[in-house]
Amino acid sequence: MTEQGVGLVRPLPGEGVVAHLNGLLLVCATGGDQPVEDLLSALNETATTGGDGRALARRVAQVLARAMDRSIGGEPVACAVAGPAGGGAAVLVSGAAYATVSGGPDGEVRLAGHDALTWTDRLVNGPVSRVELRLPGAGPSSPYARLDGGVVTGAGLECDFTRHGDLAFPPLPPRPPQPQQQGVQPPPIGAPEPIAPRGPVVPSTVPPPPVSPFAGPLSGGGPSGEQAPPPVQPSSHVSQPLPSPLPDPGPAHHSGPQPLPPLPEPAEDRGGPHDLNPPHDLSPQHDLNPPYDLSPPYDLGAPHDLGGPDGPPSGPFEPVPHALADEEPGEATQLDAAPELEQRPMVYGVDCKNDHFNDPRAPYCAVCGIPIDQRAVVPYKGPRPLLGVLLLDDGMALPLEADYLLGRDPERAPEVQSGEARPARVTSPDGSVSRRHLRVFLENWDVNLLDLGSVNGTQIQPPGDPNFYDIPPNEPVPILPGTTVRVGVSRTMRYEPHRNA
Fold it and tell me: What is the pTM of this model?
């Protein structure tokens, strides 16, 4: 099914609810104790996380199990789901629903929910040509009806993989990166280029000489000829352009003021010549505009003072060595290398009404705060925005746009050498931070911690909880916004999820 595309999906008229999202199909009855909302949530969660038909069947089975616990003596929930899985189709039917899968090597496969005490599921080998999910009373499909994505009223679905279905809600193509994301400075916006001043409107048989940047207004009716040469006697030193006193010739000169070129960034902020996207750079060119003070001059591109084999580095996040190294020894946080410009990973998300790309699980927009109706939006793949920052206790902010490896000597770690993570050197006066202590990695919209078997461990303080808890070594642990992380004994950082439009 996956290789064949989504196919043409048509709803069947009748009483019930049918849904189609990213090739996943759902049919369920309504009324009574039918868990329609839970089934639609299972479909939406599977589609937004990129799951296949097998994942959908498992989530639906959990919903059915909970419904059976609430109503042991009642009728089973009437529903059917299907989706691509392993080159074929995963199908689950329950209650009065039934399904038909045809075109595969097993021929036509029919499944009925009433044949089982709980539900019936099967993984049908592919490639398949047609999938049909039905409830009792479903009518024939109309040749003019189609469901390319969304939730409508109906009692069944037909999916024909021999015909191509042009999606009404296709995953949008990746949004074109803005000029600042491509490393290109946009042209400066300023006043229109002024027009050179003109002399008095006086008929003349000889065109006036070219206007010089140092020449005054044309003296067509001046009282004395000693103040300006006559315009009818152009000489070589007047007609030839004067040499520019500037080293860069640039475009043609104008007598009026010119718009200023964009000012270069301070050398302390730009780093070396290859410093294209320093991790601490949260300038307006990024999607994130933190309210934190990031004004100290950090040098991420110049050669670094990495310290001796046992000694700590000289300052927080590589401050200018000659200015701050002697003033702030001891406790330090430092980035050891400036990452190259890299494309943001593509994840499934949804847009709010103001076109802000959001986590599909979020009930409110992370940028403008308006509610997001999960049943009215269709997930699509787009570049993941900045998830926030990790704000360390020394004031440094790690933008959550890539993985990090924190430790006393992170640049030698294999994760850093292979380019999987950026090094962030963190030291403490008590020496409680290991050389390779903690990895922070991003997965879809989640921020995860992985303690790398450090000696003094890593602890987390969930938001609103006064206590710290140890995280197990070598096991990923997701954290929520507002979580405080303790690295070793004395170093802490906080996950701040702020985003701006």
Answer: 0.38
